[in-house]
Design goal:
Layout lengths: L5 H26 L4 E4 L7 E7 L25 E18 L1 H6 L4 H33 L5 E3 L8 H8 L9 E6 L1 H8 L8 E5 L2 E6 L2 E6 L5 E2 L5 E8 L3 E4 L4 E8 L6 E14 L2 E3 L10 H4 L5 E3 L9 E7 L3
Parallel strand pairs: 1-11, 4-16, 5-8
Antiparallel strand pairs: 2-3, 3-13, 5-10, 6-7, 7-8, 9-10, 10-16, 11-13, 12-13, 14-15
Helix pairs in contact: 1-3
Length: 322
């Protein structure tokens, strides 16, 4: 690869990666019933802040036409603010020797395909793991949407059903469930049958169980080691988690001398926004450009809606070893 070709190679690498991520995003969103939405829309700055009017349902009242016409309390029209936060990531450096590619009769196109495919899968996996971690943290910090039976019981259909009951008359709005492979096979062990695979990517499987998609992915946030070890299942409403990816991918490829053979390295920087339905990122406590630990801290996600049924969904926490 000549030095003059590096800029062109980097350009095509970026375009190929962004295109692949966009294609995977479209497939994933449809298959997950739009509970976790990976969007190609980005935003400027550290945060995306959206204002919306608060619910006015509590303004409803009963009127007694036989009673005296006295004054009643007013319900204030107010606005709520939802905050998403931008997360930074990197890929590489990836190193190869141009002479080796030529030796085995491979060209730059082979390297371009391999790097762009693996980088696309890595970015998608990072986005999914990050938004799942954020939803788990925000939900577990809200006792009203958490069914923690880990002190006494393992995972079961009955336990998940009890968790759904926390949404009461709006439990039907829980459109998909997110669990790891261990949880999935526990439920399969309860004689659930499944034959419809909707989506498959590196480390992610979406299947159909009882008419609702189940996202099966070994996201780290779905398992917590300790005494006991805990397994976690998210039951999510539409738009529960949002990833805003504006295609912010910067790649740089360099060749270097000084060793026995010429070496080429590629490195990439990328970013995306993360938001959780019903919970606002705490810009003071959480700050900007957060780490994985900060994103996974429940107190950094502040519930801004009044009704818990307007949040991302519910979470089941069970003993992983029962």
């Amino acid at each position: 690869m000549a030095l003059s070709d590096l800029k062109v190679f980097s350009q095509y690498l970026t375009e190929a990666t962004i295109e692949t991520v966009a294609q995977e995003i479209e497939r994933f969103n449809g298959s997950s019933n739009n509970t976790i939405v990976l969007s190609s829309d980005g935003f400027d700055g550290d945060y995306m802040q959206e204002a919306m009017f608060a619910s006015l349902h509590n303004a409803q009242r009963r009127v007694d036409l036989n009673a005296a016409n006295t004054s009643v309390s007013s319900t204030s029209l107010s606005q709520l603010q939802a905050n998403s936060v931008k997360v930074a990531g990197g890929f590489g450096p990836v190193l190869w020797e141009p002479a080796t590619l030529q030796w085995i009769r491979q060209d730059e196109a082979a390297a371009l395909e391999a790097i762009s495919r693996n980088m696309s899968e890595a970015i998608l996996q990072d986005q999914l793991n990050t938004v799942i971690s954020s939803i788990v943290a925000a939900s577990e910090n809200n006792a009203n949407v958490t069914n923690d039976i880990s002190a006494s019981s393992g995972l079961s259909q009955a336990a998940i059903n009890s968790t759904h009951a926390k949404f009461g008359d709006r439990s039907a709005s829980l459109r998909a469930q997110v669990m790891n492979g261990q949880a999935y096979h526990k439920l399969i062990g309860e004689a659930l049958t499944n034959s419809n695979q909707l989506f498959s990517s590196e480390g992610v499987l979406i299947v159909d169980i009882l008419g609702k998609p189940v996202v099966v992915t070994d996201a780290p946030a779905l398992y917590e080691s300790g005494t006991p070890n805990k397994i976690k299942v998210l039951s999510l409403a539409e738009m529960a988690g949002m990833v805003s990816d504006g295609g912010s991918l910067i790649t740089n490829i360099e060749q270097s001398n000084g060793k026995g053979r010429i070496e080429t390295t590629m490195q990439a920087d990328y970013n995306f926004g993360v938001g959780v339905k019903g919970y606002a990122w705490d810009t003071v406590n959480g700050g900007n450009s957060p780490s994985d630990a900060e994103l996974g801290t429940g107190t950094n996600w502040d519930k801004y809606v009044t009704n818990d049924k307007d949040t991302a969904g519910v979470i089941t926490v069970a003993d992983a070893d029962q």
